[in-house]
Amino acid sequence: MNLDDIPLFPLSTVLFPGSYITLRIFEPRYVDLVRHCTRTGSGFGISLILEGREAGEPALPAAVGTLGMIEDFFTLSDGLLGIRVRGSRRFKAKSTRIRDNGLIHAQVRWWAEEARIPVPPEYSLLCIVLERLLEQVGGDHAKAERSAFDDASWVSFRLAQLLPVEDTERQRWLELTDPIARLDELLHCIPRFQSA
After folding, report:
1. What SMART domains does this protein map onto (predicted)?
2. Between 3.40.50.10540, 3.40.50.2300, 2.30.130.40, 3.20.20.70, what CATH number should domain 4-110 receive?
3. pLDDT higher than threshold 90 for residue 47
């Protein structure tokens, strides 16, 4: 199977397929990245930082990440460029290299999109929790069709993005390829957020 070469944007957060993130762009390597992606209509990989920081020296990214597609541009209050990015498909990096400007590129293998599987009845609590969270945070997903709440992948990805957990736990959920297994792990962590 052929590998594709994509630029990476390591972050201190995890992006799931179908989720959105806003990024503040100020380093020259990422300004160039945004310019390239805009010109070519391509995306870039977003991977959790395992070692290092978002700014400065290139960080060590997790192997599994999500392709980000730029959906909007705006000027932030500090005058810097802001972009809205939507998570697309997941990938696993097989190798990485650092270009002269500090931008990391990865040779990646794409993961197949998860099949649409109905949410089993024993996980219906998660749909209720997700609805309540979306009522509070609003956004595009709060306007989703009712049918979305019966898609195990959609529900599990949305909850994994919204629950207040450590990014290492989010990364584990991103790396699961079975949406039911992801729902199971999410269900087991819900008691942590219930008041006594």
Report:
1. LON
2. 2.30.130.40
3. yes
